[in-house]
Amino acid sequence: MRLVNYLREYGIFFAFFLICLVISIFSSQFLTVANWTIIFTQVSINALLAFGVTFVIITGGIDLSLGSMVAVVGVLAAIMAHPGDYPVIVPIVIGLFAGVIMGAFNGFVVTKSKIAPFIVTLGTMTIARGLALIISKGRPISNLSDSFNFIGGGVVLGIPFPIIILIFVFIICVILLNKTVLGRYIYAVGGNELAAIASGVNVNKIKMTVYIISGLLAGLAGILLTARVTTGQPNAGAGFELDAIAAAVIGGTSTKGGIGTIGGTFLGALLIGVINNGLDLMNVTSYYQQVVMGIIIIGAVVLDSWNQRKE
Amino acid sequence: MPENQINILKVTNLSKSFGGIKALDNISFGLEKGEVHALMGENGAGKSTFMKILMGLIQSDSGEVIFEGEKLAKTSVNEMLKKGISMIHQEMLNVPELTAAQNIFLGQETKNNFWLNESKTNNKAKQLFDALELSFKPTLKIKHLSIAEQQMVEIAKAISNDAKVIIMDEPTSALSEIEVATLFKIINKLKSIGVAIIYISHKLEEVFTIADRITVLRDGTHITTQKTEDFNRNNLIMSMVGREIKDLFSENEVFIKSGEPIFSVNNFTKRGKFSDINFEIWPGEVFGFAGLMGAGRTEIARAIFGLDTFDAGEIKINGEKVSKHSPQEAIKNNIVYISEDRKTEGFIPELTVNENISLSSMANISKNGFIQKGKEAEQSNKMVIDLKIKATSHQKLKNLSGGNQQKVLIGKALLTNPKVIILDEPTRGIDVAAKFEIYRLIKELKAKGLAVILLSSELPEIIGLCDRVMVISKGKNTIILPKKEVNQEKIMHYAVS
After folding, report:
1. Beta-carbon contacts below 8 Å between A and B
2. Contact A233, A71 (CB under 8 A)
């Protein structure tokens, strides 16, 4: 009885370890430091986006514009990051700022128009993609400074820089959601918006904030991606929003709002990374990987709704 | 046995356990053709488990259910419906965008080969409506009907299914007095055509009016079944709670106002909802809003709290005009409102008791945006103890009983240190014992010098608790009655004027 409850609550943990176990049986390379460094590095961009969208989903919203925002920020930062033009802080700040602005736009339209976030961010997704193409004139922007590329490819004390960023952001997000008034209000808004209003919560402000957080983290992911591939691509990030949402959902975030954790989302993102990595190591073609991933997403949600009903 | 012939439904020695806890213990129950049989008991007494078994939603562990002489075993909801047992749920289960007629025949549409025959559907619905003497058209969409009318549609649907037993779960919880009267007329009609009704309600007055027999359950056991006339208020309450509760509304001394009013509302108007509302309240006073459902009571309260907008007028607290109107500002100005609709506007189901209680007081228990968890636990725990909330502070609200959820909401309101507290139907849908605790609480608040605005459609509450009562009719204040003039007849007189 107890064990069953435990399994349900921490199902994602068990799934994660079980899958790791299975892969490690089939591949001797899997459980090596080098391989895990690769996994974490690959996961970092999706995890950052997934953290952002977790905030949004907990309030009962959704953000489909993540991938396009990554592209806008990417090309914008790349333009500023040619060697000898500006100090490296400039493309970073401009990139993050662009993310914030786009997030604020999402939040503004969602709160003022009362249009479903799905539709609003679907619109922003298209707008932002267009902007990325306009800014870059449709061409990739390369020849970036070494100091900028360090963000994506550098190593500090043996740890790739993206992993350091990832862990830093993870900690901030956990604190934000668990220790602050903002975090509590985010759960309240998603859990019961009307009750939150009647409790004196400024619901519009909270919604605005989560879309800004989502935009900011999309900005960070955009900078990271651009620095890693050392090019600003206007077509970068297509479909990233879906991977991010998948990570959040696999990690136990309820699309109905009010439920979800950053830790769960992190595990969700890792799970996706581990499966892709493991299937690679086992020489499974990427076509099959997609099928497996889809099954896992549906499985996670089914498990989740089953949990909800049992309660 | 002759008894079995009149008993359309007979239940013997029914038991059901959930994880070792006995929810039902050897329940026996008989239902005669054409009778209204009230099922009473506090929350957790086993009423819903019993009804779920009857509806085929869950299976019993032991015991038998005999319906029209046939033993029922392991039946599904659909089979029960086909056999003629229907339930009118507390929360209406219908499709708002479809018409009443379409809802009634949902799942058994009238068809010509492949095509729907709407006119025949409407005619059949019209016949049902005529039989029940319903005054609205079956071609209206559900979303345009009042809750009372939606309920009538559900009843019509049950009849169209040839229901022989209809279970009504708190059918009047959202109805006005007039609508209740209509419902009772329909119930009598159902009786006359031989339909038996299991009537679940917390409202004693209603049960005494409509029920032929009353069965009381307590802690999953059958306490008593008797004819209604063999019960009186006291022994019915006693058998429900297992002890005597005296002084439901102990006599208050007449309230003597002193000093300045703490709260006043002047020329308060919202077009189409209410107009020219004026009143003042003194600290320690309980001020009632009475009136029929739809008279505008809730609308006034919501506008005072800033949940809805208003067109003209002003509100003053401590003589100072409130200039900005939103729930945040109201709470800052020490005004709180507890909604009549706990579920949709009250609590956050996924948050814990503590987290719900502290939700409106974050400014006081946080520093630089960080929640001071120690302070939060301390203050919330104090509320849990003070209000006798039967739950641990880390339980999620969705797992609490209605009475405890309501107390959590009161705790949330009190933690903001209010001077004016607006309680909108604070005892709706909660059991008798919890009701008494709410009454006791209101008196405590009064003793502490809070001004309480009480909205209730249960007149005994208004009469028993309020120092003055404003009677509202069609959005207008018809009179403010002082305590000695507050009685049922006077309130009704002004409410319908």
Report:
1. 75
2. yes
